[in-house]
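Internal tracking record. Fields below are filled automatically when a chain is submitted to the structure queue. Please do not edit lines marked as system-generated. If the sequence contains nonstandard residues, flag them in the REMARKS field before resubmitting.
Queue: standard
Priority: normal
Entity type: single polypeptide chain
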Amino acid sequence: MTTFTSAPYNYVFDDVIYVRVKATNSYGYGLLSDACDDTGARVRSVPSKMQPPTESLLSTDTEILLSWIPLTGVDAGNSDIIAYSLYWDEGDSNKAAADVALNDANVDQFTVLNVQGGVTYRFRVRARNIYGAGEFSDDTIVVPDDAPGKAAIATVELAVSPTTSVKISWDLPNEHSATITKYDIYFEKSNGDYAMELTACDGSDATIVSNRYCIVPMSTIRDLTLLPRDSLIRVKVRAYNARGTGQFSELNTEGATIETVPTNLMVVTIDVPSTTNTQTKVTWTALTGSARGGKAVAITSYEVYWDQSTGVWVALTSTSDLFAV
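SYSTEM-GENERATED OUTPUT FOLLOWS
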């Protein structure tokens, strides 16, 4: 091929090499044949510079899948490609270029295994035909990462303050080298559906994302879930980052339960032996178990009202006893 591109022919790349032939015998030469058509041989060369490799969305924080556009025709130097050579820098930022060979084969993709999440890697590729290797592509820079891992089971407990609220907290899932930017926190409803509570437990709030907990009033959870008293408050959580969405956690199987105000007391009883012309003693039965507003709820006091024979009920006293005089 170098003969055609040198003097006296001076062909340039992609020129068609036209040829005519004539025969000779003892009487002389015959006529020249017609010239070959433009589907004949063309001047060939090494392949052109390739486009940079492309990272696949199937890549993770431990392996990188790269692909590139094969060269054909003029871009291939008018010669079949023998191999594509993929090079990288092994994650070494001190290297001047991606100068370590990874693969040399006639393929258009390659998976790089055992990379380290969060490390910057440089890749470049070039093609080779029988005339030699073409110019390297520009670098493709890849920082391995992946969608978050599955969240662990959330902790659902009564808040220390205010005590009439519920604290939902969860551990940091595996970020897979991409910072978590959002959480979905779902509460299971009485009908088996799920709902988010976006006033006190909005998983896109930066503070909640950072602290990984939210505190929701018990009354809000009751209204959201419609669960009856003493029902377990069940929650599932999942995380988001720039690469996608992680799997939901499993539902918690223990933790805080629905609590309410106490149920109505039985009718109070007049303690006749202790009643005089100047005072009346009334007694009542203590609320126990779920009637207290939940099996884990303690009665802090009883508020006694009377109507003073006017029909208007007013507070008489507040007591932790089971009687009032």
